[in-house]
Amino acid sequence: MMTLPNPSYTGKVRDVFDLGNELILVSTDRVSAFDVVFRQTVPDKGKILNRISAEWFRTFRDVPNHVISTDISSFPEPFRNRPELEGRSILVKKCRRIDFECVVRGYLSGSGWKEYKENGTLAFKKLPSGMSESEKLPEPVFTPAIKNDSGHDENVSEKRMEEELGTDLFRILKEKSISIYSRAAELVGKAGILLCDTKFEFGILDGQVILIDEILTPDSSRYWSAETYRKGTTPPSMDKQILRNYLEASGWNKQPPAPNLPENLISELAAAYQQIQDRLLQCLSQEST
Predict the structure, then answer these.
(1) Distance (Å, rounded) from C-alpha 271 to C-alpha 144?
(2) Which residues pair with 222 in a beta bridge?
(3) C-beta of residue 125 within 8 angstroms of C-beta of residue 142
(4) What pLDDT, in 10s, does the model give residues 47-86?
(5) What top-level class would CATH report for the domain 96-253?
(6) Domain named SAICAR synthetase/ADE2 N-terminal: which ranges (predicted)?
(7) 174: which residues sit within 8 A by CB, 6+ positions away?
(8) E strand residue ranges, 73-151
(9) Cα 199 to chain center, whole Å?
(10) Which residue of 85, 135, 168, 250 sits 20 to 30 Å from the alpha carbon of 228, by its own alpha carbon?
């Protein structure tokens, strides 16, 4: 069997092979937080994220996206039927990435809660006074961020995004993002899951805006169980927020090198990823029947 080439690009948690007009994205078991990659890995994390994302792409197949195949038997050589790629890779169309993260929030939490406490705003827009942590927002709010290849992504206003991309493209991205979030939140809500917030990425191929990257995974989204949700608290997470919460409390300055993670935290993360996969896949399978 031929040796796999080195990845064309190694991201924080994914390896990318550039095939010209196509890419192979490989979800590894690496884990990152605050744009820093940790030495330890979370067993089977990559396979779980890959499967969840693939199922969401199938659920929203009416939205143009970059997916070609998740079946490694259809991959070109030397990537075809490689055991190390099984279950954790996807063949996609290569396109021009739009360098903004399209974040949608349905609840006041995380960095959104921090901004509100300091300024009474969310994404630089005023919110009603007297809101509580984790409170459901009157309607989903679009809170974009500009992608930085080095350093942290930067939260920006809608106005700045519109100025940089143009009004038409900005409106398309905002409308698509809020629509997908709203549909997903309604769908998982039937299964007792709350979609607190999520991020989408888009690209342009042949003049068309398409959905790219991963969607609605526990790395790109904040999920809560309706059973444990309480306004005015930080609800228990079903996603990577478990790691962020641990790090926030640890006193780490969020700069490399990454600290060692305790084994019990790794086990907790692995169990959380498995739990949200099982609940989401059950929910999505019921929707497709």
Answers:
(1) 30
(2) 197
(3) no
(4) 999 999 999 999 999 999 999 999 999 999 999 999 999 9
(5) alpha beta
(6) 9-257
(7) 102, 142, 158
(8) 89-93, 96-97, 100-107, 121-122, 125-126, 136-142, 145-146
(9) 5
(10) 250
